[in-house]
Batch of 3 targets.
Target 1
Amino acid sequence: MNLNFFMQNLINALQWGSFYALIALGYSMVYSILMLFNFAHGDIFMVGAYIGLGVSLVLLKIVGSGAAALVPGWVVLVATILISMFLTAFVGIIVERVGYRPLRDAPRASAAITGLMIGIILETSNILFLGGQRLAFPQLIESQTYNLGGVFITNKKIMIVLVSIGLMTTLHQFVTRSRWGMAMRAMAYDFVVVPLVGVPLNTIAVMTFAIGSALAAAAGILFGLAYPVLDPYMGVSFGWKAFVAAILGGRGSIMGACIAGFMLGFIEIMTVPGIQIVNRLFELNIGSNLRDLIAYSIVLAILVFRPHGLFGEPYSAKLRL
Amino acid sequence: MRLLEVDNLRVSYGQIKALQGVSFTVEEGEIITIIGANGAGKSTALRAISRMVPVLEGSRMTYRGQDLLRFAPDKVVSQLGISHVPEGRRLFGNLTVMENLILACFARRDRGRIAEDLERVFALFPRLKEREEQKAGTLSGGEQQMLAIGRAFMSGRRMMLLDEPSMGLAPLLMLSVFEALKEINAREGTAILLVEQNARLALKFAQRGYVLETGHLVLAGKSRELLNNPEIKAAYLGG
């Protein structure tokens, strides 16, 4: 494998990993803070992508498109991302209020299936209201390809990776520096005691769902730019894989979820050239459709050696006062 | 003046009746203690005041004329000023000493007074000042208890509920922790409700005491009377 080929795949892996990482953050935060798996989160990513589609169509209608547009495409894109993040945050807030808060003291398994049911409701509502056909995501910015010494990079890939890393850095700053972030970290350590120091638990829970959902919306729009076809089930396998990244990253670690997301993207993308090399060396004929089998066997192996994930933070295991 | 009136407090954990109609009062600025054996229901009484456990029908708690049961747990702290130092301290071990203290001010409106209050905590426990940037999980047992009290002080101080603060501390440390509590009580007028297995220590510290046995209050009185009561001596003070 020459260096150019490796670099090409690395860039693809960074883009693919960005989606996983952004979605994994939502899983990871809710899990850390409420000891709860929000299995609806993959579908919130889907809802975010569709909200992004709707918002961008409305904006394009207002400002016009092509040569007659009032503002350049990237302005529409930035506005679409911000507005959709804001709107999808409310979807997360509703999910918390309707699906999870009433079950706060219920057995954990009940809260887990809530997520599955909400996910199915979101998927089927999409089919109900939009007819279930695949929809094209408008390409808000002109695609440009740069040739860097034989490695091809598009402006979209650069943008997707930079926006993702920007959002992750912002979240990291928020969690480590603000008092809201401090409350989130305290909750991740011992959520039972949080009300005892005067911190409103529900407010922090709502905020966590809102932030996670907003990030999933950003991932949805960036995904729509890279792969411009949306369908109601796009969140299912993506959601599961991002969930894997969240757990692999380790409980309570923002950085862990991000790194694990990128790592998952890297393993998945790199498995295909890996298969090709093995085929050539040993004259085998392994199909690249075995990608996920091989990729997730590697992930499983990592988890066997690091059962607490890569960067898990310590926490108190006490579930009551 | 009456600060807290607990009347017919009943709490169950499933089939287990933890408190079966307990009544007591705390006056403004008073130090009182509830003593009793392990499992008598002492901690449950504190949890009920903090609204951390549901109470059964007929239980009444009145705090400065207000119905305590109408307040959510975090509001009991931030609006009523009742702070709780739980059993085993339960600090946020992943946060620094400073962050633990700052977090306790989360809902405070008087932001301007926080710096001043931090100084008071550090004056009371100079050790915490030295360890300001250290993670709370790395503190020694005594330092953790100081931080737990400091955290409670920052969150609300009209009344402080203390659950076994002497647990796991060497006798000398134990005394200095109680000295600090006395100082908080004297300076701020903070009422203290102390729950202890170490009955002798608790009764020497408090003005009045209650004796709890398997969910019932069996005896109440001035600490000095309880210390000299032959039954108490035999059952709780080691003869």
Target 2
Amino acid sequence: MQRIRRVLIANRGEIAARIIRSAQEMDILTVAVFSEADRNAPYVKLADLAIPLPGNSPKETYLNQGLIIDAAKISGCDAIHPGYGFLSENAEFASACGQAGIIFIGPTPRAIALMGSKIEAKRIMAEAGVPVLAGITVSDSDTLSENLTELADTEVGYPVLVKAAFGGGGRGMRVVHNPGDLLEAIEGARREAASAFGNGTVFLEHYVESPRHIEVQIFGDSHGQVVHLFERECSIQRRYQKIIEESPSPAVSEELRSELGASAVAAAKAIGYVGAGTVEFVMDNIGKYYFLEVNTRLQVEHPVTEMVTGLDLVRLQILVAEGMPLPDEVRSARINGHAIEVRIYAEDVLGGFLPSTGVIHHFHVPDLPGIRLDSGVKSGGEVSVHYDSMVAKVISHGKNRDEARRRLARALSETRMYGVANNVDLLLAILRESEFKAGAIDTGYLVRHTPADLVGTLRSSDTVDAHCIAAAIAVQARNRSESKVLGTISSGWRNVPNGHQTVTFKHDGTELVVRYRLSGDRVEFSIGDGELCRATIYSCAPDEVDFELGGIRRSATISRFAGRIYVADNTDVTTFTEVPRFQEHPALEAHGSLVAPMPGTVVRIAVDKGSAVSAGDTVVVLEAMKMEHSIKAPVSGIVQEIRVDLGQSVDIGLVLAIVEGPT
Amino acid sequence: MPVLKSTVDIRSEEYRNNRAAQLEVLRQLNEQLEIVRGGGGPKYAERHHMRGRLLVRERLELLLDPDSPFLELSSLAAWGTEFTVGASILTGIGVVSGVECVIIGHDPTVRGGSMNPITLKKNLRALEIARSNRLPVINLVESGGADLPTQSDLFVNAGKIFHDLTELSALAIPTIALVFGNSTAGGAYVPGMCDYAVLVDGHAKVFLGGPPLVKMATGEDAVDEALGGASMHSKVSGLSDFFAIDEYDCIRIGRQIVADLHWRKLGIGPTEPADPPLYDPDELLGVASSDFRVPVDPREVLARVTDGSRFSEYKALYGTSLVTGWTSIHGFPVGILANARGVLFSEEAKKATEFILLANQSDTPLIFLQNTTGYMVGTSYEQGGIIKDGAKMINAVTNSSVPHITINIGASFGAGNYGMSGRAYDPKFMFAWANAKLAVMGAQQLAGVLSIVARQAAESQHREFDAAADDARRTAIEEQIERESHSFFVSSKLYDDGVIDPRDTRTILGIALSAVHSQVVKGRRGFGVFRM
């Protein structure tokens, strides 16, 4: 038994903050590591000490075993917590920690290695009596032959799932329905797996259509005890990544729960598992389940288990790593109520879930009953291109599934994340959707329900209109308050009125022209071609408008960041951009014309007609007054015309060439 | 500072009568302003739009900073004349890129924006305001030039526009011409005389002589674009400093030019709290008298105009027919002179003189609220030196160098008009409430005086006095004077800068005070304050 006094967290973001919280509660000193991009991340400040890792790429930083072990040594750490991802399931790193005399908070290198190979894992599980799906391994070096497509049919059965043998998180996964597509899918999966995990070995198995993703939390100690902490259901996924998880699963009966638990414990015992782990299963609609894999680490979604069991899994990990036996409360754990977690991603949902990056100007999750926030960001923080785009998790707990669901939906409706596109609306829409409400979910949920349809249910046009006029009132309040002269005179005052003030906003790609006139506490306005309406203003400031429209009093908070206007009331946010009154017109001549700025002689023609140029490339060189003047392409595009010859004298204003950009 | 306490009974019959009378004259005013706003009427406005052009008021609104105020001047110019009310030109003070500017825009829907003698007067008054208050000038140019049938009343004086524009430039007051259309012959000198000119492609036409005139003069076959298009002037003659691809672009460039002036006002900004009055300005309609013979307590007006209804009265117990004191409006400290009971006696004249001297000592602008029937007449007053005392007041008003802003809130008759800083005394701005009257004396009084003079003349010549004819003449004269003392008539002749709604008094004073502080605000010093 060895007390841990100082722990290095070899991770970043919300999980680093999460681990720091439990460790500090145990009076263990915490040491963070951080890349250049993470220098201002909240977890770095939460930690008692922090050590910089030069560079940004995961390979240079959070995957850099040597640097991290050095960091642990120089800061006097006696343990390393790897979090999830990065080095958390790296047997080599776990061994290296041991060799350096540092406790690796996680299972043994052997267990990691065994489970890290999906093929080996499946063999062991099958031997231990855990239900498995048959599969085929295609190693890194195998040459792909046509008979593989036949083999896949007989051994596995189409549709076939191709996935990386090492690593997880859906990276490199592909579903193949048509045998003719198999080889290409394998090649693609290999490339992705090789770049993400350093090993291109892939694995083929039968793909269970519309399955539920059920997983069991297991915990083992070094005294041979293994328990399970019930199941989690993680069927709501986009692109094979979980976005909503819950515990318990609405599809798991008491009976099935013991069966699943027994299988998971059997699996864990088969490899002498120590620490926190997760046995993942795929379950069909009649409750038949198959082993998928064991995650030898703390899962992203561990909080739902914590919420229903009242346990602190990070604390337990540390206790087990110190060699302590699992405490009684773990062995006697029971499910109390229901918990649901949503993952907030910085991503453009409607743009195909593309990760989005940039500054999160404002981030707020309300502190409501039953709500827990595990966050890696705060207002003003940045989402960089270097790491995963998950920024926070919001977890709710309730007496039952419906209460947990309602609490979480309300919390999400009050959640604000400005500056970076995110999936909060999608999460909220799912929580309110009837199939989800009924628990009728599977991993095909987001194929059946398109994000656009889901998000479209959230907001009425009334809200958009009310927010639009609130934005107009706030914009005028700002214009007035920022005015250097006549700032105390009434907004838009005229002794001979000329009609309304106008402001144009863009919302969801549509331009909305708002015409308005203020007089005292009244505003008369119209939006687009809509009819003239009247509203009463109780108070207005650049950041807050309290008004009455159609007999209903509303209060809106207006924030502005990087050219966007966010109008929020308690439960809704609408985003606008103000369309400037004037457009800049950079070019005088026909678009893309290059004009001689002075009289001179053409001494060089740098490009040919029809060639591609980038903005700023030299097209023609003129000599005038013994000076050479490069005439550069104003836009990137194709040289449509060269209108001059070498040695030609040209007059000022003559068009020398025309470069046409893409239209 | 003491706070005024209003004693107006808003349920009294007098209040209700006053209010009804004010609302009626404001209805008439708005009717006229509706015509002003319509310019040449819907037919010409539509034609102008069809040509891809903006109306002058649309240009103005685009030019101004969003949500900023605009004080239109001389709106009733040419009211009651053969010319369209408004005089085919728009002038006023507005904020462009954070800078208060005088804006002068031709209205091309009224006879092509051509200039008649009243257009000229209004244009020159706007330039005068720009000069005396040091406000940059932006011309929105689209004018067919002189209204030729009126050339004899126009041509000679019209040269003053170019004179004034270049004089402004010499005073380092920037002048900008945004040329949207015709600017030919004499009009061509507007962009010519301004510091900056922006011409709109395809629309601006700036030349001394058009193709027909050139053909007649030299036989040359010339075309518009080559003679005076935006492209030519931007690339060849250099008259245009900026080439605008369309009207919006032109206005955008105009705004940028102003931003690039890095303008600094020479006067101080508001220094006092600018909290609104405690009493509703709407009540001014009931406070203002419907009959100038019934005096108005100016404290009731001030309670609805000054910051927080504050007013620190000077010499409250002396010369009580004139109220004087210190306050602030929209944060600008001011001195107030306001008639309380029409007539100015020697005491009032001496009190006013001292107060004006004090304001000059402290560089404080003065607001004159006129409601006067003139200086007192009669033997004892003449013997008491009313002429000398009135002269002191007029001397002080004339030689005071702090800005004066005058508002006629009821009556402005006789030398009272002079002593209370009337138009001839160059107040920086002068406005009149819609019901206010201005003349040498009241209509009835004037007709009566003429009748007495006629009777005396008949007597001295031993002619028989025709009482019936006198009655008829008396009625005719009374009607004439009544008409000529009407605020619309006075304003149409540019004797003030506009007829205003009493409820706008505070706002208009705020804008005017801010404008005067673009210039140095400095009182006259010399002998010190004479105790009269």
Target 3
Amino acid sequence: MSEYEFTDSQNAIFAKLSVSLRRFGIQLGVFATLLIFFGLAFAIRGRYEGADAYTSVAGGVGIIFVGALTLALCFKLLKPVEEFRLIVNTEKNDIDWLITGLDKLAWAHRTLRLILVMLLLSAALLAYRVLT
Amino acid sequence: MNTANSQFDDSDLKMSEYEFTDDQTKHIEEIHAILLHISLLMFGIGSVLMFLGHNQPGIAGWITIIGAGLFLTLGVVYFHPLVGFRRVETTAGDDIHYMMIAMDNLRTAFSTATWIVLTMNGIVLVMIVMLL
């Protein structure tokens, strides 16, 4: 067990970090919900008005899937908030809370990496279609 | 690095002589690597979207270019805390000092990302209205 205790000014950084992270997580949750609605509108219009360059059922399902992944990311991002708060509110084990918080942050960002890889592949496919 | 406008008192940080253990450094290296991947993926998506935006006429093209700009900004924002993490891993001494710089930059990154996601929410809302 590490006995290092963060100073007040350092604790202030962690307090602000936990607030920023929570706000970011909540905004991502709103974004994910909007993305799911957008995917639904995309798919419904593609289904009833016929698929064109901008609407299709498959595209809509894809957007809903990315929205669901983003929603999962939102919940994962909110988890390390608690560890950063514990650094501020408790004494001792500060370094352990920090490492656990960073671990959870890394876990959340693995999901973000997956979403971004999917987005990059989709964008690259679109770019390939434009070129050929 | 965000040292000039840091939210914490620099003087008391330099007093701390705590050195992260090898195991703790591995966890820090992990989040460092994931954040680097995310930053590079953001740059990649931003570049492809920029290309797509230039080849798309009308408002859809402009929305794509704005989206590209947001992804490129997120790439820069996510790259910023990496310097602090790198210093923690590679230098001996002042580990807490560099960790706090990384945490402060991470806080700035999440704050900026929150505004960017807020803008993206607006874009998705416009796209939903356009579809309905």
